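Fill in residues.
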């Protein structure tokens, strides 16, 4: 299974290539020192994402045990490091993945300055209609009195929903037609793109360490974060961190529960 894709409600998606993250993947088992390490049914194991934290912590003692000592002690150490904010050991774990999302969400993502990113360029790609993708919005929420980004009241008027959908499709299509016409008239691609709306989908490749990924989750899973980024943050938490750093995921979930935040996107 080299590549996995998780799609959100609006067409945004997270693409995770297992080959690019092979260093997280190796599931190791507690056995006698020196034994070969591989998964064994019925024996306690540790994902390599979590083991790397232990290995980094135990460099300080020049330990020669590959980071692992025994299951309970190791799990307690990860908790201790997390709770005492020994952040550098979490920075030794890196994740790499690609996100396809609306341009206006990519703008929010870019504010996380510690992430490494590369983004697609409209200048260097094909300019055919079938290759340009726009967000598929959900018009579920009304603006709130406090102007919170999450919104809290559903739009329940079918006529309004229909008007919004028709208006949106018309404006994205019109934007596309003007963009294409400008290029056909000889306008440079980087100038022509001003006709395109911010709901155009863009592709970004990211590399982030676990410490800054956790920081992102606490900002972007928060109930006041915009839904379209919140849903992606929950995919990162529940599909990636849960898989490769299950001990850290448990600790994150404990904090979410204390804050009364949902553990799944809601
Ligand atoms: C709901 C919400 C609304 C927001 N609205 C706005 C908005 O209207 N306008 C806007 O501009 N932003 C907005 N932001 C972005 C927000 O202000 C942060 O910039 C963004 O969330 C990134 O957070 P960060 O700095 O912790 O992450 P990162 O940039 O990934 O940084 C992680 C940590 O690294 C350290 N760090 C990184 N770079 C430096 C540096 N150069 N010097 C010192 N320390 C550094 C800091 O300790 C920082 O906490 C919003 C964010 C949220 C969640």
């Amino acid at each position: 299974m080299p590549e996995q894709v998780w799609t959100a409600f609006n067409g945004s998606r997270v693409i995770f290539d297992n080959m690019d993250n092979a260093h997280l993947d190796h599931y190791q088992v507690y056995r006698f020192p020196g034994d070969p390490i591989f998964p064994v049914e019925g024996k306690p194991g540790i994902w390599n994402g979590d083991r790397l934290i232990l290995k980094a912590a135990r460099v300080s003692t020049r330990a020669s045990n590959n980071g692992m000592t025994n299951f309970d002690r190791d799990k307690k150490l990860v908790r201790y490091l997390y709770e005492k904010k020994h952040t550098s050991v979490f920075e030794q774990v890196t994740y790499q993945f690609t996100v396809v999302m609306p341009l206006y969400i990519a703008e929010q993502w870019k504010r996380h300055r510690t992430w490494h990113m590369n983004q697609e360029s409209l200048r260097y790609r094909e300019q055919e209609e079938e290759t340009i993708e726009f967000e598929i919005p959900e018009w579920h929420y009304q603006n709130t009195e406090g102007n919170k980004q999450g919104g809290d009241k559903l739009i329940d008027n079918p006529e309004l929903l229909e008007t919004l959908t028709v208006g949106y499709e018309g404006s994205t299509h019109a934007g596309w037609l003007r963009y294409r016409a400008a290029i056909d008239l000889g306008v440079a691609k980087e100038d022509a793109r001003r006709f395109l709306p911010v709901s155009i989908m863009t592709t970004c490749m990211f590399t982030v360490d676990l410490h800054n990924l956790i920081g992102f989750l606490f900002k972007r899973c928060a109930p006041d974060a915009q839904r379209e980024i919140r849903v992606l943050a929950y995919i990162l938490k529940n599909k990636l961190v849960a898989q490769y750093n299950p001990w850290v995921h448990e600790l994150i979930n404990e904090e979410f529960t204390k804050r009364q935040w949902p553990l799944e996107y809601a």
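The chain has a mean pLDDT of 90.
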